[in-house]
Amino acid sequence: MLKALFFFTLISIEYLATTSVHIGIVESMWDKSNHFTAFFTLYILLSLAYPQLPTLKKFFLLLIFGVQIELVQEFIGRSSFSALDVVADMIGIMIGVIIYHYFKTSS
C-alpha cells in the first residue's frame, strides 16, 4: 500500500508540475513552498515504502526527479529551469531525512 501511495504521489507531482491546466490552489501558493512540501512528502513516503534503500540513494533518486521536472518544464515551455526550485527540492528532502530518522530512532 505504501509503495502505491508513493508512486501515486510521484505521478501526481509530475502532473501538477508539467500540466498546462491552471490549478488555482497550487498556483496561489509560493512556488518554493510547493517544491519543499512535495519533496519532503516524497522522501517520507519513499522511506516508508522502501526502508531498505540507503538514505543517500533516496536523496539522489529524488534529486534526479526534481531536476527532471525542471528540464521537462523548460522543454514544454511551462517555465524556465530554476536552480532555486532544485534547492527548495533539496531542502525538502533534507528536512524529510531529519524528520524520518528522528521518528525512526525515537520509536
SSE map:
Elements: H1 2-18, H2 24-27, H3 31-49, H4 55-76, H5 83-106
Structure notes:
This protein is an all-alpha fold and 107 residues long. It has one domain (2-17, 30-106). Helix content is 80%, strand content 0%. It has 5 helices and no strands. Helix 3 packs across helix 5 (83-106). The longest helix has 24 residues, at 83-106. The radius of gyration is 14 Å and the shape is globular.
Q: What would the keywords be for this entry?
A:
0% strand, 107 residues, mainly alpha, single chain
Give a brief rundown of this model.
With 107 residues, the protein is mostly helical. The protein has helices at 2-18, 24-27, 31-49, 55-76, 83-106.
Mean pLDDT over the full residue set: 91
Backbone structural class: mainly alpha
Q: What is the helix tally?
A: 5
Distance between the termini: 21 Å
H/E topology pattern: HHHHH
The backbone outline, from C-alpha atoms, is: globular
Content of β-strand = under 5%
Overall tally of domains: 1
Number of strands: 0
Radius of gyration: 14 Å
